[in-house]
Amino acid sequence: MSLKTVSIKIKRQSGPDQPVRWEDFSIPYKEKMNVISLLMEIQKHPVNAKGEETTPVVWECNCLEEVCGACTMIINGKARQACSALVDQLEQPITLEPLSKFPLVRDLMVDRSVMFENLKKVKAWIPIDGTYDLGAGPRMAQKVQEASYPISRCMTCGCCMEGCPNVNRKSKFIGPAALAQVSLFNAHPTGKMNREERLDAIMGVGGITDCGNAQNCVKVCPKQVPLIRTIARLNRDTTIHGIKRWLER
């Protein structure tokens, strides 16, 4: 039996207004461990590296296969998913911190509700008139499908928000994820019916003009969503839309 252990350093906070503390843990090593499995070991046996009993660490997870985005946290200084962060590929001690751009709930758990509220602001849906069968919708061209699919991979994990310097407490910027969904729905044959509403939404406060083109969002996105190209396209679309609005006065 191997005596190898994994060293973890976790930033902990009992609540939003509670003092911050760092706590070290030492977990017996097993092959193919990920950060979630480390946290589950602490949950089963909440004793820190000093041998002191403590409270289980609070975090979120769901799918455990990098699809839901719930387990996003800062691991060794980088925003990523805990389920796909393999222990064998991480430097020790492994440092775990909550995302800093969202309200803290407790320990590693944050409230990402703002991301879903931003989707409401940009009308990231296709409205249906009634509940009756509308029949088959229009076909989407293969070229449009190929351009839209990478954007549809977004799992609202919050990595792009964490990496973006324009997302902060002083800014109302809705962030790259919501902007990308505008492009996705506006490219859809049915979604185009509400294209102008979405463009109007991102031309307001906190919209596309608040993007500083830092390009950090692309670097941290775990799904390789082409955010920079998508935002550039939206810049063109909103400029043309604004000129048309001005000419129609």
Description:
This protein is an alpha+beta fold. The chain has 2 domains: 5-110, Roll (Ubiquitin-like (UB roll)), CATH 3.10.20.30; 113-247, Alpha-helical ferredoxin (Fumarate Reductase Iron-sulfur Protein, Chain B, domain 2, Orthogonal Bundle). Helices cover 33% and strands 13% of the residues. The protein contains 8 helices and 7 strands. Strands 2-1-5-3-4 form a 5-stranded mixed sheet. It has a two-stranded antiparallel ribbon with strand order 6-7. A hairpin with an 8-residue loop joins strand 1 (5-12) and strand 2. It is elongated, with a radius of gyration of 21 Å. The model has no long low-confidence stretch (mean pLDDT 94). Belongs to the succinate dehydrogenase/fumarate reductase iron-sulfur protein family. It is an enzyme of class 1 (oxidoreductase). Its EC number is 1.3.5.1. GO terms for molecular function: 2 iron, 2 sulfur cluster binding; 3 iron, 4 sulfur cluster binding; 4 iron, 4 sulfur cluster binding; electron transfer activity; metal ion binding; succinate dehydrogenase (quinone) activity. This is succinate dehydrogenase.
Topology:
Layout: E1 5-12, E2 21-28, H1 35-44, E3 72-75, E4 78-81, E5 94-97, E6 104-106, E7 109-110, H2 113-121, H3 142-152, H4 159-163, H5 176-187, H6 195-202, H7 216-220, H8 227-247
Parallel strand pairs: 1-5
Antiparallel strand pairs: 1-2, 3-4, 3-5, 6-7
What is the overall number of helices?
A: 8
Number of strands: 7
Indicate the CATH topology of the largest domain.
Fumarate Reductase Iron-sulfur Protein, Chain B, domain 2
CATH-scheme architecture of the largest domain: Orthogonal Bundle
Cα gyration radius (Å)? 21 Å
Alpha-beta classification: alpha+beta
Beta-strand portion reads 5-15%
**What is the helix fraction of residues, given as a range?**
25-40%
State the CATH superfamily name of the largest domain: Alpha-helical ferredoxin
Compressed to H and E, one letter per element, the order equals EEHEEEEEHHHHHHH
Taking the sheet with the most strands, its summary is: 5 strands, mixed
Q: How many distinct folded domains? A: 2
From the N-terminal CA to the C-terminal CA, the straight-line distance is 78 Å
User: Uncertain runs with pLDDT below 50, 5 residues or more?
Assistant: none
The CATH class assignment of the largest domain is Mainly Alpha
> What global shape is seen?
elongated
Spatially, the strands of the biggest sheet line up as 2-1-5-3-4
EC number: 1.3.5.1
GO molecular function, one term: electron transfer activity
Domain 4Fe-4S ferredoxin-type: 151-225
Domain Succinate dehydogenase/fumarate reductase N-terminal: 8-117
